């Protein structure tokens, strides 16, 4: 490569990186169309820019343009098949369109990064979508036992404990714990109401304390109604 070509390439790389930096600023500000435009300019200047492809994919997810995001992450995996960032994000995107492939992608990713809690959770979601709820529950139960689980993990573990094992006690324990950590967890209130109503489950004093409803009585139907009101107040469309 002669000096002229080297200089042109260096200029293109610098301009690409400048456009990428501008895109990151727009993304941080929530201006996703402008961010996408900047990342596209960066890729036009340097089509092989790993960082620009990753940035493009991430902002496309935020803009809910999942098909385009999928294409961006597949582009990265063409020249770097074991790239964990691209694998993890591709798996997340595929949850919306191809849960079977998402399951395979997360399985592959977790072979490379087995301790990634969020990826394990997303893997469990893919398994549920593929009618493998018992396997998903095994993963979630391990997460609950081994980590300080996020409220959404506790909520889903509780729901699956009820649906797979018909274990209302464990379900209520996990879901009330989730709601104590995140009182605005809309689906937690709904799931708890559903379990209470279906099993005519009476919440004990500890359950009531955790969800901040110490005045609940021993009427399961009344309790379920009040729990549903909580879910409705948080925006769940309930007739």
TrEMBL record:
<feature type="region of interest" description="Disordered">
    <location>
        <begin position="1"/>
        <end position="23"/>
    </location>
</feature>
<protein>
    <submittedName>
        <fullName>Tetratricopeptide repeat protein</fullName>
    </submittedName>
</protein>
<feature type="repeat" description="TPR">
    <location>
        <begin position="16"/>
        <end position="49"/>
    </location>
</feature>
<feature type="repeat" description="TPR">
    <location>
        <begin position="50"/>
        <end position="83"/>
    </location>
</feature>
<feature type="compositionally biased region" description="Basic and acidic residues">
    <location>
        <begin position="14"/>
        <end position="23"/>
    </location>
</feature>
<dbReference type="InterPro" id="IPR019734">
    <property type="entry name" value="TPR_rpt"/>
</dbReference>
<dbReference type="Pfam" id="PF14559">
    <property type="entry name" value="TPR_19"/>
</dbReference>
<dbReference type="InterPro" id="IPR011990">
    <property type="entry name" value="TPR-like_helical_dom_sf"/>
</dbReference>
<feature type="compositionally biased region" description="Polar residues">
    <location>
        <begin position="1"/>
        <end position="11"/>
    </location>
</feature>
<keyword id="KW-0802">TPR repeat</keyword>
């Amino acid at each position: 490569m002669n000096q002229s070509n080297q200089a042109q390439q260096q200029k293109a790389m610098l301009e690409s990186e400048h456009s990428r930096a501008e895109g990151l600023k727009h993304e941080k500000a929530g201006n996703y169309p402008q961010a996408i435009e900047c990342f596209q300019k960066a890729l036009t200047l340097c089509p092989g820019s790993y960082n620009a492809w990753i940035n493009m994919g991430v902002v496309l997810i935020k803009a809910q343009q999942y098909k385009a995001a999928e294409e961006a992450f597949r582009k990265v995996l063409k020249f770097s098949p074991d790239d964990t960032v691209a694998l993890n994000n591709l798996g997340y995107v595929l949850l919306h369109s191809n849960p079977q492939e998402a399951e395979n992608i997360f399985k592959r990713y977790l072979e490379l990064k087995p301790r990634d809690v969020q990826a394990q959770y997303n893997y469990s979601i893919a398994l549920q979508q593929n009618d493998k709820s018992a396997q998903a529950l095994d993963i979630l139960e391990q997460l609950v036992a081994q980590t300080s689980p996020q409220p959404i993990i506790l909520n889903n573990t509780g729901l699956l404990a009820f649906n797979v094992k018909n274990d209302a006690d464990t379900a209520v324990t996990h879901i009330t714990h989730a709601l104590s950590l995140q009182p605005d967890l809309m689906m937690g209130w709904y799931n708890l109401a559903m379990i209470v109503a279906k099993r005519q489950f009476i919440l004990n004093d500890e359950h009531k304390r955790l969800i901040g409803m110490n005045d609940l009585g021993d009427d399961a139907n009344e309790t379920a109604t009040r729990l549903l009101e909580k879910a409705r107040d948080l925006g769940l469309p309930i007739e």
